[in-house]
Design goal:
Radius of gyration: 17 Å
Low-confidence stretches: none
Structural class: alpha/beta
CATH topology: Rossmann fold
Number of helices: 6
Strand content: 15-25%
Order of helices and strands: HHEHEEEEHEHEEEH
Number of domains: 1
Oligomer: single chain
Distance between the termini: 44 Å
Number of strands: 9
Helix content: 40-55%
Pfam families: DUF2529
CATH class: Alpha Beta
GO molecular function: carbohydrate derivative binding
Strand order of the largest sheet: 2-1-5-6-7
Length: 181
């Protein structure tokens, strides 16, 4: 069962990478520009937490000049120089949509990370500047009764963050900005 899960999970990762190649590059460039300018990067998770905010702000793979958008009930003051990463488990999350609209009114760049069934059916995808889709993951390990278990949503969301993080750091390193951040 573990070999099946691992094999299927590698397929999920490969699909995320293949389907988001341009979006990862675009997002990474926008975030890198924010980091080397006067802006700040903020992260917010709507719905079930997948650990992206914790990793981006205080984990081993944290981004420089990055903080939580909402901390202890207070929302950070954002402006046009800032970039906000919003992660949501449901691309049609009412909270994610409202928050994105508010941030866009303030001129912020908004990067969305969510799982969508298929391209073209997500309002969230349409209103963010760049959308990274980790897919609407279904369970991937079959049981004897033909049901499946092992839905990899959290792992897929974190993998999406990791490939974004690695691309951002690669851009900053190529431009020799890591030493000043």
């Amino acid at each position: 069962m573990l070999k099946i899960f691992t094999t299927q999970l590698l397929g999920v990762f490969n699909t995320i990478q293949a389907n988001n190649e341009m979006e990862i590059e675009d997002s990474a460039r926008l975030i890198a520009q924010t980091l080397i300018s006067e802006g700040k990067v903020y992260v917010h998770e709507c719905g079930i937490s997948h650990g992206i905010a914790g990793e981006a702000v205080s984990g081993k793979n944290r981004l420089p000049k990055t903080d939580l958008l909402i901390k202890e009930g207070y929302t950070a003051e954002v402006d046009v120089a800032d970039c906000v990463i919003i992660s949501t488990d449901a691309a049609e999350s009412h909270n994610a949509l409202i928050l994105t609209e508010q941030l866009k009114e303030k001129g912020c760049t908004v990067i969305g990370i969510s799982g969508c069934e298929a391209e073209g059916e997500s309002l969230f995808k349409d209103i963010v500047d760049v959308h990274l889709n980790y897919g609407k993951n279904s369970p991937i390990v079959p049981l004897n009764d033909h049901k499946k278990i092992g839905q990899p949503s959290a792992v897929a969301a974190l993998y999406t963050y990791y490939i974004l993080y690695l691309t951002i750091m690669e851009i900053l390193d190529e431009q020799d900005f890591l030493r000043i951040l």
